[in-house]
Amino acid sequence: MAGIRVYHRHNRSPSKVGQDQDSKRRKTSSHRKLKTTRGTERILLASNGDISKRDDKEKVLQGATNFDSASTSLMRNNLTEVPMVRKSPVTTEREGPHISPDIMDLIISKLPMSKVMQMRTLSRDCKNTIFRSTFINSRRSAISEGTFSPVVFTTDPSGALHWLGFDGSSWLKLPPLNFSPKHFPSPDADLFKDYLVACHRGLLCINVGKAPDFEKIIVCNPLKQQVKVLPPLNFRRHPVLMHLRVYDTGHYTVVVAGSAAMGNEELSFKTEQYDSRTGEWECPEDSDLSGLPFCLNEFQNGAYYKNEISGEELLLCVGFIESHGRGVLVYDLKKKKWIPGHLNRLIPLMDNGRGGALGCNFASTQIVEHDGCVYLFSEQECGNEAYFRIHKLNIDAKSSNKMWVIMMVEKRSRGRGLLVYPEFTCVPFDDHQLAIFNTIEHTIETIDFSKSTGTALIRKETLPTLQGNRFHSLNPVGFVYRPSFTELVCPSSSCDVKTQICSECERREKEKFGGG
């Protein structure tokens, strides 16, 4: 009879077998699911009780910050393939009671940036954590999410735009720029470069409009995947200068000037300034550029300078100053107009050895802001010789007088002479350091101005693995990217966390862009 019992135990009816298998699958599935209100907390806390009732709450919060410090950069992981968080080895099988969203947001805010992005893949509630006030307020006091300079752009086979940044030791993939194809169309695959791009802190400002159509300027936070479409310019055109400035109060301003379109000289004088608090572009009557038409003839971001005594805020850019040559034009951000008087801001040319600069010319010029100072990097050619020169613009805080001080001169072999993009660009690097970036070979040469014996050159060879086609912005990239969870594209209004697009921007876009 025992054998018969064993036989029947292994030969149950088909219906009974199906029921047992379904039950088994349901039990297995229930253990695998990461529920928002229970499973997520189990991974985060490895606890059976509500954290708000635990005596060791402070230890738990402290433990959340003690992750591998090497993971503090989000870019260590490919953001398009973020790995799932595995079950903690101290996780128990029992699920604790519900934890309030505020507590969960507070805990997630203590994690390194890479871990925050991994947690967002677990559930919708975790995904929306970075938009809630508890997380944002806690994150404001956090250390920097990272500093990246220089940066390079690439396009994948689908045409989507990506970028990489150098964090001081290696090249890392930055938050994707293809999160909203509707507002961020793919660059033209047939062009070597496209888009005028400005950046400050964690926000990007990009003109994604394509000629012969008008401009379409957006502001986005790649880390939060938020985008805002700015209103059309009062004078529709593709500007040559575009500058973004984010303030500690949370608002930002965008300045555009000049025009890339030949044939309409009047547009080349126009300057407009956008304020995120009003949501409008301003173009005062006395804000036009003075001097020759198209005196701004190079795509650029300009450099910001603040006078700590007078409080004036200046935007400096490179332009042609009538017949005198190339110099620095100065725009007052508060008064919204250009400051006259340019002769004392002419960019010095090399002496040709015969007591003059005859026969010398600029191959490229780029103005850079770093550590509150303004630098001018230039490639100058004198006969068969080429030189790198870096000047510092000393500005007297009391009198506002400006004077060039030479910081570096280095003889170089002639470059490849790219006609569409400079072979070398100058970018901010570490404290008291600038870097000369070879845009072809991807090498970085740092210049340290803190040495008492003069500048120190340190050559660093780097070659990032670029998947897809190399791509350039219209302007030489001279900015530093600092990812941020706290900076908003719409400081005065809330964003829809489902689409990360401000409802006010959507309404404005439909009215002024016809819903496109």
Automatic annotation (TrEMBL):
Skewed-composition ranges (Basic residues): 1-13, 24-36
Tree of life domain: Eukaryota
Region (Disordered): 1-40
PANTHER family linked: BNACNNG10540D PROTEIN, F-BOX DOMAIN-CONTAINING PROTEIN
Protein name: F-box domain-containing protein
